[in-house]
Amino acid sequence: MTQGKRSDSHAIVIGGSLAGLMIARVLSDHFARVTLIERDRLNDAPEARKGQPQARHLHGLLASGLEIMSQYFPALKEGLSAHGALFNDMGTSIRWYAYGGYRIQYQSGLIGAMMSRPLLEWQIRQRVLALANVVTRDECSVVRLLTAGEPAQVTGVEIDNRSQAGTREMLHADLVVDASGRGSASPKWLAEMGYAAPEETEIKIGVGYATRLYRRRPGDLVGAELLIISPQPPHDKRTGYMFPLEQDRWIVGLGCWSGDYPPTDEAGYLEFARSLAAPDIYNLISRLEPISDILPYRFPSSLRRHYEKLTHFPAGYLVAGDAICSFNPVYGQGMTSATKQAAALDAVLAAKPEPADLARHFFKEAAKVVDIPWQLAVGEDFRYPETTGPKAPGTDLINRYVSRLHQATHSDPVVYGAFLQVMNLMKPPASLFHPKIVWRVLRSKRHAQPQAFQPMPA
Ligand SMILES: Cc1cc2nc3c(=O)[nH]c(=O)nc-3n(C[C@H](O)[C@H](O)[C@H](O)COP(=O)(O)OP(=O)(O)OC[C@H]3O[C@@H](n4cnc5c(N)ncnc54)[C@H](O)[C@@H]3O)c2cc1C
Fold this sequence. Notes:
Layout: E1 10-14, H1 18-27, E2 33-37, H2 63-72, H3 76-82, E3 86-89, H4 90-93, E4 94-98, E5 101-102, E6 111-114, H5 117-129, E7 134-137, E8 140-148, E9 153-161, E10 167-172, E11 175-178, H6 186-192, E12 199-215, E13 226-229, E14 238-245, E15 249-256, H7 266-274, H8 280-285, E16 295-306, E17 317-319, E18 325-326, H9 334-350, H10 358-381, H11 395-408, H12 413-423, H13 435-443
Helix pairs in contact: 1-5, 1-9, 2-9, 9-10, 11-13
The protein binds flavin-adenine dinucleotide.
The site of flavin-adenine dinucleotide (FAD) has 37 residues, from helix 1, strand 8, strand 16 and helix 9.
């Protein structure tokens, strides 16, 4: 299968969300045929589906994610832009209150994209489905793996065709990739095949979101394109995001750590916004027109499955995306992690490993992709004493330094630039400990903070 593109080689991807789409794109270069199987119906429109309830909530795309997606789909930015996505310099466009002050605004050269998650996914899906060798089977649920041999290897999947009740079908393939999300059945399927399930690391964080859309008018916000209000742990557990979306909408996500969940009633929602560390979001939404209900989402824990530690794994099978690792969504890393995993798979397949070695090589590379966002997210989450789970030695010490670094971003563009590069997964966290940055952090003082932006008069 990996010895060049055999004319009858076939790969199957389970799950047609972001990870599945990026994996299908990559596999289309290495296999003659790719079949993408999705349980939901996939309409040719930007819409959230039952199988991905998170798609109704705010999704930020990190700069590195956008960059890699654009390498696989060269005109992606233009397509998104044509449907109302906004692209802006992250340093100038974000009005970001964190650790007791506003981060300085400056030209960073890092381009961020703002659009709804359904728009991004629809644009990518259109491009994947336009590939001549990719077909989709939507409204089909994978119910089990097909296996053969001793030790057992994966030879395909059995699907339940939901559009024709009771119709089962067997599909055979050289490679099956499970991108079915956090609820992935892989641990169970592996156990049924006689393999060990992966060890799991779970960090309980008690994160919750409440999301609402508002009508957006020119001049709602002066001097920035979006707002972020981050808390100062450990006492402040509340956060807020307000991003512009296509079709003249704002998406507002109020969130929390440690179970301090935002309410979903009108008055409670506004009161929660008012209680944030800075007044900007409250100032705006208290006078804007809501155009949706308030939708809750609870995310009790970050979860990592250590496939890279397994010594035995069936040939013909891989797992990717949230099925490997689902992060605290507050840091906006999931789609970028999935995209980087797809790029890692591309590189692994290009090296043409023996089929029996593919999983070992891929999981090793995928673990490298996941390590950094996991370390960043989990490190921050441990600022709250209510967070539980395995805590790396030195976390508190690092967090004390990073607190000072956050404060230095109020006044120092070089430190803020270094932070943005790491946060966007462009540079490793170690770059924040470069002597030049440490020196600037240690000498920085808290500066007087500017006033909150006021909305324009109606
Ligand atoms: C509230 C919230 C906010 C988030 N915000 C951000 C953000 O700001 N930025 C960011 O980058 N990431 C964010 N994420 C993470 C992001 O949504 C995921 O990382 C991203 O969707 C990739 O996930 P995935 O494709 O692996 O899985 P999922 O998106 O969960 O998709 C799995 C797919 O598999 C399908 N499926 C499941 N089982 C089967 C089966 N048996 N047969 C066929 N199909 C099946 C499902 O229908 C679904 O379409 C957020 C997550 C949450 C929960």
